[in-house]
Amino acid sequence: MKVLFVAAESHPFMKVGGLGDVAYALPKALIKNGIDARVILPKYGKIAEEFKKTMIPLAEFNVSVGWRNQYCGLQYLEYDGIPFYFIDNEYYFNRENAYGYDDDGERFSFFDRAVLEAINYMEEFKPDILHCNDWHTGMIPPLLKQYYPNLKNIKTVFTIHNLQYQGLFSKNILQELLSLDDSYFNDAALKQYDGVSFMRGGLNFSDKISTVSNSYAEEIKTPYYGEGLDGLLNYRKDDLSGIVNGIDYELFSPSTDKDIYHNFDYKSIDGKHVNKIELQKHLKLPVCSDIPVIGIVTRLVKQKGLDLIAYVLEELLQQEIQLVVVGTGDVEYENMLRYFAGKYPEKVSANILFDNSLAKKVYASCDMFLMPSLFEPCGIGQLLALRYGTIPIVRETGGLKDTVRAYNEVENTGNGFSFANYNAHDMLFTIKKAISYFYDKKIWEAMVINAMKEDNSWVKSAKLYEDLYKNLM
Questions:
Q1: Span 46-74, average pLDDT
Q2: Separation CA 130–CA 40 (nearest Å)
Q3: What is the pTM of this model?
Q4: Residue 78 is part of which domain span?
């Protein structure tokens, strides 16, 4: 079986969010299962020179973007056993960021058409499955059906990583960039509100749809979470499945991780205390192993529950705790955290930056990990926290609901704490409950061991994707 995984980002070349992790780790897991899985993404200008120097040119050809005839280069690199293809066009991709530009509609119209053209130049590799991801790749399924009869046997899977981002552009792009007639708009095949939606293209024209957790698959069929697409998702419910993301256990391993202070595993959790003390020293917090340290590694935006945190943070800081935050986002939340770090310097460390090494130290060192999201398709933070023995405190939504189970003292089961309502005081009550358990060392150590023994690797999820592909074929 041959699978071409299409994404706008992938570790280690360009990573913006969780998709970048998935586009590396899932193909890697599929390859271990004997599937010929390969990845194709844009050749961004920000890709490290060490990678660019080793890319092998395979072909040069032109790509139609409406009336435009644009250059495209196809290049190849194998990394960590994964074959990667790169779509080269400096006009579209030699920029500071992966996306977020006014001409993103044109950039990804080019990319989607270029991927389909590139298949003709992939020596000895013709995919059985095109696995498309998020809005950036949403026009591949309709373009495949409209313009590529020679590729008609290729099946398509479209994965929603976050339904909120839909790639919505002016109606003009339909003919101007995609060379599709008005029927695609009038029949609502691509129409969303008064524009053209790349996301809708993927949802309407792919053979199968997946998303990144079972709970999110159910949630997005409701008006509250459906972002205006719940009707379409209900119509295609028989083709929609939820498969929870995993994490790469080789990249994220407390027993071998070089970014943390001291390696440990579930058989030697005393090593976690060493990390905690070293983090306190590093961040200039009072050194004390008996104070519960709560970590937050996130984008500082409402979706991640920052409004709940803002509402009760003063009250929370009356507890004997330390709070360590790593992330950037909305100015109001950045300033709020800076204010509280100034007011309570012995309790709050606000690190308003993205630092992957510091983030891993937080996962390995803290006692608890707070993730009270408004919605969360899957989430990676809680999975990393579990991997490093840091007990998650989450709201029961999407992938958080699927991966974090409330601790049951009687049965000694569960791996974290959770609350259902999107309510600041429900969150505060749950944090206080976790703090009360923290002081019972026997219970807490059992919980940490439970968390670290969880299997959130890609093994199970890759098998579910393999089954999905086989059903299509």
A1: 97
A2: 10
A3: 0.93
A4: 2-246+459-472
